Amino acid sequence: FVSITTSNETHFEIAKCFLERGIHVVCEKPMCLSVQEAEELCHLAEEKHLLFAVTHTYTGYVMSKVMREMIQQGKIGNIVSVNAEYAQDWLLDELAPNMAPVNPSIWKTNPRFAGQSNCVADIGTHVANYVHFATGLKMRRLLATVDRFGHALELNANILVEYENGVRGAYWCSQIASGHLNGLRVRVYGDQGSLEWDQEQPEILRYAPKGEAVQILARGAGYLGNANGQSRIPAGHPEGLTIAIANIYRNFIHALLALREGGDPARYEFPTAQDGLDGIKFVQAVLQSAKNNSSWVELA
């Protein structure tokens, strides 16, 4: 298989080239630059019976999987609200008085390489993917505002989401949030409790059952469920981003082996081409809403 970690505008042509030659693909997000391109890659992978993974890294953390498992088990009851954010400050210098770009990361900030979106495509897609992964909720529509501060692409976005079951969520993503390094935080509230995960403290999960004391659950502990089987090293020895990425690649490789040996690749979990397509639809809907005075936009 091939791993694509180049700039955004190259993903589609590279992925298409390998798929057409019968080679499985692992691709960085965003999967490509348009819904049409994403749909073509999905169709091609399906037609060729090839596996396609998109590296939404944070779903590879063990405690992310524990969160999903607990929600599926009804530990917080019926979901009533979702609050998620991804805050960074690495582009704070872009707010220079003359609004002149000062950060050299043109892969993210220059439309030639990044496409139509910076902040939402780069980190907002992680928020949307993580919430769907953890809760199973599917977006019906959204409304959004984006802030460009005189630059070509957005540096900040606020998004209100309505899911198919009528529940609503609030997302915020920013690259100019002073004091935040890589703050992906997801809070899921149910009628029987809540769960909260913080990427900067990935070894723990905050569980607040209704009417009881808040519990801090730790990776590797014996009281966790099947998801704990994804742990690589003993409890108390912190796993990090590289392990989360490795979990995605490990599952992808196991799926490849299963496919080769006539087994069921669906047994092995990783973000798929469909997740990549959903991410592109999310980005396009955010930009469309912001352009149209923050009106509601339906997600097909």
From TrEMBL:
InterPro entries with a match to the protein in the record: Gfo/Idh/MocA-like_OxRdtase_N, Gfo/Idh/MocA_oxidoreduct, GFO_IDH_MocA-like_dom, HMG_CoA_Rdtase_N, NAD(P)-bd_dom_sf
Domain GFO/IDH/MocA-like oxidoreductase: 67-196
Domain of life: Bacteria
Pfam families xrefs: GFO_IDH_MocA (PF01408), GFO_IDH_MocA_C3 (PF22725)
SUPFAM superfamilies named among the record's database cross-references: Glyceraldehyde-3-phosphate dehydrogenase-like, C-terminal domain, NAD(P)-binding Rossmann-fold domains
GO molecular function, one term: hydroxymethylglutaryl-CoA reductase (NADPH) activity
Domain Gfo/Idh/MocA-like oxidoreductase N-terminal: 2-56
Protein name stated in the entry: Gfo/Idh/MocA family oxidoreductase
Organism of derivation: Candidatus Pullichristensenella excrementigallinarum
Organism taxonomic ancestry: Bacteria, Bacillati, Bacillota, Clostridia, Candidatus Pullichristensenella
